Structures are given as structure tokens and as C-alpha cells.
Amino acid sequence: MPIATSTTTSARLLSLLSLLQVRRDWPGMQLAQRLGVSERTVRRDVDRLRELGYLVHAVKGPDGGYRLEAGSQVPPLLFDEEQAVALAVALRIAVGTGAGIEEAAARALATVRQVMPSRLRQRIDALEIEPAGRGTQVGTDLLLALSNAVRACEELRFDYRSPGRPDDTAQPARRVQPHHLVVRSGRWYLVGWSPEREDWRTYRADRMSLRTPNGPRFTPRQVPGGDVATFLAARFKGSDSANAWPCRGEVVLDLPLADVAPFAGDDTAEEVSPGRTRLSTGSWSWAALAAKLARFDAEIEVIGPQELRDAFAELSRRAARWSKPFS
């Protein structure tokens, strides 16, 4: 009989651990077949995993088997190559989330990278991810409290620091039924239903100070449209329903398409003639749309609608007043 080397045993333990991680219950016979060993060897390998800190429970039944359970400590984990790369990418992205875990994410990334084979380290090192801006910092404890309230369907009471307003801690606590905790552009937002206003509300997490205890349980609702990301994008555009700007207009700019396209974003820009570009764009108000188009610093022909022409006229009148010396 050949004697298994320590290298063979270690490789088999890793294979066993990988199988236990991807499926809840494994019959002992199936594990033995997958590993190419006897059921007795599987039992010995399970004992070795238990010595390393893994909680592997025996499953009773006609076939018998094993189940990997969560433990009180974090034992070594096993990832395949794609999982390891995905984890490293996620840890790099975590720096820009504003969740207050930057240092921990950096240490975890260093730990994962250290045990990677060289070919995977090269893939990770070649991937340049630099946050466009630092996210607004939010305490991890607050994020966990908000997330727990969302999961438990418990009403929240909190104070809210509105921009440009004095601290309102002396005011009655606000109430909201939390439904979603979302990160957008480095900021965390709580999306919930306000029983007092009978409408959906969005709050920046960094401006919230929770009061305890939480309120009563509630029955979850569905955000308009069914998708919280689309709903939040619509609210930031000033729309109560569809994910579209409430004020849209069309103009022709005396600029070549190459000068307009980089700033068009999701808008529609097309060349109508050499040096002239048709642009269909929108904003949350007609005044904001007129100001947005004025930034191109070019002659503008308004195609429509009339509300946009009126907004340009009002902007012109205001500019004329602002240009006079202050007295």
C-alpha cells in the first residue's frame, strides 16, 4: 500500500474544505468518491479540519455525512482563483465607500495578496483602482444599526442635521420605516417610508443620530418601480416617479461634436453640420437647465420647449441686474 505524503494529505484537506464550503450537506460516500479515497480517510480528514478550528458536524441519516458550520473564531478560508481576485478587487473598492474600514481593508488586502501565487498577484497589481474622491465617513456601528433595522423591519427614531440649518436635537425625533441602505458616490443613504408624510424619504446616514430604542415592527413596502437604485437616481434628478429629468430641452450649440460629447454624459448629442451640435439634455428645473447650457460658452439656438426659452430670458434679466454696480 502506498503511503500518503504530508503534501498529498494537505492537498486533500484543501480539496475537502473547498467541497464543504460550496454545499451545505455532503454524504460521506460522495465526499469519498470526489476525493478518490475511502470513507475512513474522509473521517480522519474531517478530524484534522476540526483540530484546525473548523466546525464540521456529522449529519445523521441513512447516508450520513458532514456539514461545515460557522464557528466562534475565524479559521483559515479557502478561495478559488476567481474568488481570490474578486475579494482583492472588493477590498480595494472598499477604501472609497466611506464605511470607516479603510485601514482594515488595506490590512486584509495585504494578507490575501501575500498568500496568492505570483500569477494572481500580477493580475491584482495590474488592476489600478483609485477612488475619484473620499467618501463621507460614516461610523461602522451606525451602518450596522441601520442595516439591522432594515433586516428586522423595525421603525427608526433619529435626529437629523439638515445642511444650513441649526442642530435640531431639541425637536421631536423623526420617524421612518427603513427599507434600504444604499451607497452612492461615496455617500451612504437610508431609503424609507415616512408614516407621518405618507411618502418615501431619503436620508444621508452621516447626518443621522439614532435614538433608542427602535420603534415597532412594520410590514415592508416596495419602492416605486421596484428597484431602489433606479428610485434613488430618480430622486436625485428631482423626479418622483420615472428615472428621468423633470425638465428636458433641446438646443443646437455652435460647437463641434468633439467639444460637446465629453460633457454630454447620458444626454444625446449629434452633429447637425460642421461646427454645430444638437444636444438633448435635462435638469431638475428650467433655471438649472438654462444655466447648465450656458456653461458651454457658445451661441445657442433653442429648439424647445417654450419653458426653456423663458428660463433663458429670466436668466438674462438676472444677469443684467447682477452686472450693475452694487450700491
Automatic annotation (TrEMBL):
Which InterPro entries does UniProt cross-reference here?
Answer: CBASS_pafABC_assoc_protein, DeoR_HTH, HTH_11, PafC-like, Tscrpt_reg_HTH_DeoR_CS, WCX_dom, WH-like_DNA-bd_sf, WH_DNA-bd_sf
One Pfam family here? WYL
Report the PROSITE patterns cross-referenced here: HTH_DEOR_1 (PS00894), HTH_DEOR_2 (PS51000), WYL (PS52050)
**HTH deoR-type domain span:** 9-64
Q: Which SUPFAM superfamilies match?
A: Winged helix' DNA-binding domain (SSF46785)
What keywords appear on the UniProt entry? DNA-binding, Transcription, Transcription regulation
Q: Which residues form a coiled coil?
A: none
Name this polypeptide is given: WYL domain-containing protein
